[in-house]
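Give me the fold.
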Amino acid sequence: MHACAPASLTAMSARVIVVAAAKGGVGKTTLSYELSAALGGVLVDLDWDAGGATRMWGFDPGAVVRAPLLDALEAGPDGKPPRPKRRPNQPALVPSHPDLAASTVDPDLVADCLQAWASAWDTRYVVVDTHPGANPLTDGALQVADVVVVPAVLANREMAALEAMLRDLQEFRVVIAPTMVPAVPPRRYVDRLEELAAGRHRVAPPVSEHRWLRRRLRRSALVLQPNPGKRVTAAAREFRGLAQTVEDST
């Protein structure tokens, strides 16, 4: 991941939270979805994969003629910002589109657009879900990030990817978000996580390994779900812990 130093954000009315990961399968999209709902922010989905936040929200980009996100990027920072889609008990969403995979948008343009949109929307937070790995869209989002949230799965390959990513993000304010944590986490990985944080990065309270989430067709955010049962209440509490850590970091 080719991170650029964050730009000045003095003109922005909203804080930009970028959720980024070096590899897929680490719970990034679920964190983005619940984090934006808990913060009451706008979720900008820059992950073009079909299993991303846009489909989770219930929007099918293939069923519409226009792609507001692509149109807004093409119009540039002086154009009309995309209008976030809204539904009860779900985060406000600027949906992704499969054509982002072939996008050649310059990272500086992505940064300028996000900065302009964050100033235009009536919100305190903009949460950006990114595609795993290095790409121009993620690089652009990182340029205007107040906080970068990095999921941390306590496993060998995932910890190696986390270590490499933290080296690239040395100039950024980072919140490490342990996720999919088993009931008895491996001690060697807990120790490794503490070494990687080393007082330089905040570590959020862990989000447990809620296996039932993988089978659930998520529309309502857990943190906004009315009349939740015990397991939803427990999971929502953990996601709110992450949101509080992010708020404390801005």
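The first helix runs from residue 28 to 39.
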